[in-house]
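Section 4.2 – Deliverable D4.2 (structural model, holo form)

The reporting period included a commitment to supply a predicted holo structure for the target in complex with zinc ion. Inputs used:
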Amino acid sequence: MSWRATLAKIAARWLSEMPDMFAIPWPPNIRLLSENIAMSHLQNPIFHDEDKARAWFEARIWPNGPFCPHCGEAENVTRLNGKAHRPGVLQCNSCREQFTVTVNTVCERSKIPLTKWCMAIYLINSSKKGMSALQMHRMMGGSYKTAWFMMHRIREAMREGKDVGRAWRREQGRRSR
Ligand SMILES: [Zn+2]
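Output (structure tokens):
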């Protein structure tokens, strides 16, 4: 599946999952929570902690455990821990390729942290009237070029995602029947 299709699947599920996904386990600041629910969403650790962001992507892209994006191996993969490896790298013991959760997703081959991708996807999904790259750049900081790049990839993924999302929901419907 292309990165567009993969992210599209996530994006299709995003809105329906939103209340759970952004639930904060306990209110760190009651006043803030009641005053501004959006601000409490933004406090979600997936937006600030790279490990949590990766765990969030992994849980969605690999709901049944990691599999190799090169050959499809699901049983014989090893997580490479330790300082010698980038965080989040796995090795397939069938084809010997290394991979991370970002292969075949919008985040593939970009140096942008996953926390930023989480934030960008959230901002685009939560703004009803759409969002310009300029507005995203203002809200997230960083360079305009980065904001434009993320927006471009996410939008493209979501456009394809309408069909993917529909097919996915049909599939889920069939399974739950
Ligand atoms: Zn493999």
